[in-house]
Amino acid sequence: MSVKVKSSSGSRWLGEKSRAFLSATVLLTALACTSEESLTEPSVAAGVTAEMRVAKTYTALDLDTPFGSGEATAINPAGVVVGNVGDAFIWEKGVLLTDELATVGFFRAFDINPAGQVVGAGFLPGADGFHALLWEKGVVTDLGTLGGVLSEATAINPKGQVVGWSFTSDWSTHAFLWEKGVMRDLGTLGGATSSALGINPKGQVVGYSTTATGLTHAFLWENGVMQDLGTLGGGFSLAEDINASGQVVGLSYIAGGGATTHAFIWEKGVMTDLGTPGGEFVNSGANAINAAGQVVGTVASEGFAVFRPVIWDKGVITELATLSGGGFGQALDINPAGQVVGMSTGQFSLQVPTLWTRK
Q1: Would the pLDDT of 14 be above 50?
Q2: Contact 302, 259 (CB under 8 A)
Q3: Contact 63, 96 (CB under 8 A)
Q4: 98-123: per-residue pLDDT in tens?
Q5: How many C-beta atoms lie closer than 10 Å to residue 159's C-beta?
Q6: For 23, phi and psi rounded to 5 degrees?
Q7: What is the CA radius of gyration of the chain?
Q8: What is the mean pLDDT of residues 135-157?
Q9: Mapping DSSP to helix (H, G, I), strand (E, B) and coil, where does residue 347 land?
Q10: Angle CA(77)–CA(78)–CA(84) in degrees, nearest 5?
């Protein structure tokens, strides 16, 4: 295969946490926040804890990756999957392609849009660190940085607009929006850092940022304005994804819960706690939402000793069975057809890329 590499004008870099590391360990990321200050938002609605049941309408498929543990990070409307198992991969109709991305510099793939454009991060010849990359039909574009040395692309919408994070010239990490060769700094909520994790077809961007008081909050960026989405009463939140209707999902500390996290959905100024299934599962986090409002994510026990993939559909939390029927798992993305990807425990107790499909 002939590979072309091109670099966008003003080539720069990115840095901070990204969907690759955030989505794969989304609940653990929240624990990294040391602030436990309670910040009760008047728009927060109380969630409902419900007993979790295992979905019998979904089948789990091992994507048969040859390199051991990894995860499937995204799936587009056509059912094409991208992910990471040592190297980045593309999976389509039962065929696993590991050379398409790895041979052109990709080492992490985070998202894929309906056109098959893939974004992530990798090393290109002459670069002094990893950069945000865009792959399309064998052509790789270096998206550059915001003046620093590292960058990562975390999401792409149907228009080809790309978001992620980048180091700036002063070694801060800022969220960016890349479009038609230009990388735009989206700023912060008044603090030093920010990162963009999702973008919808309208160009609305979500992620997280530090505030002027040093807390980390979920944000929604639109038309040059970054809005603080608040929390579920605790001192930390982040937004992972946004659908075409403007519904935002993510996770937040809860009031009085210390480092206990709950998944949320935010819509029209109201942040609603999606709750947990109860029992040993006291933590939850939402990773993605589709056009129908179906949400996927993870629930976890105290200390994150056990974590399982789940789907929230019409207010009901349902566990997605792992390949082994036990062990661990996380649901990281869902497409319009309701197909879900992530990782789960398979053979030899390895946590492998997994596709869940309705029967």
Answers
A1: no
A2: no
A3: yes
A4: 777 877 777 899 999 999 999 999 98
A5: 14
A6: -70, -35
A7: 19
A8: 94
A9: helix
A10: 90
CA–CA dist 29, 22 (Å, integer): 6
Task: Render pLDDT for 49-79 as a digit per residue (tens, 0 to 9).
Answer: 445 566 678 999 999 876 668 899 999 999 9
Reported as a single tens digit per residue, the pLDDT across 171-203 is 999 999 999 999 999 999 999 999 999 999 999
The more confidently predicted of residues 45 and 303 is: 303
Q: Which two tokens stand for residue 92?
A: 């389509």
pLDDT in tens, 322-342: 888 877 999 999 999 999 999
CATH number attached to the domain at 4-351+353-357: 2.120.10.30
Contact status, residue 176 vs residue 184, Cβ threshold 8 Å: yes
Q: H or E element: which one contains 128?
A: none
Q: Contact 332/73 with Cβ under 8 angstroms?
A: yes
Longest dimension (CA), the chain: 57
Q: Give the Cα separation of 124 and 155 in Å (integer).
A: 20
pTM here? 0.86
User: Among 348, 282, 291, 287, which residue's Cα sits nearest to residue 320?
Assistant: 287
Locate the domains of the chain by residue range: 4-351+353-357
- Dist. CA 283–CA 257, nearest whole Å: 10
Higher pLDDT: 48 or 207? It is 207
Nearest to 66 by CA among 91, 82, 83, 85: 85
pLDDT of 305 over the 70 cut: yes
Residue 270: exposure state from Cβ atoms within 10 A (0-12, 13-18, ≥19): middle
C-alpha distance from residue 197 to each of 80, 176, 249, 287 (Å): 20, 10, 11, 10
Which residue's entry shows tokens 């999976």? 91
- Distance, in Å, from the CA atom of 142 to the CA atom of 122, rounded to the nearest integer, reads 9
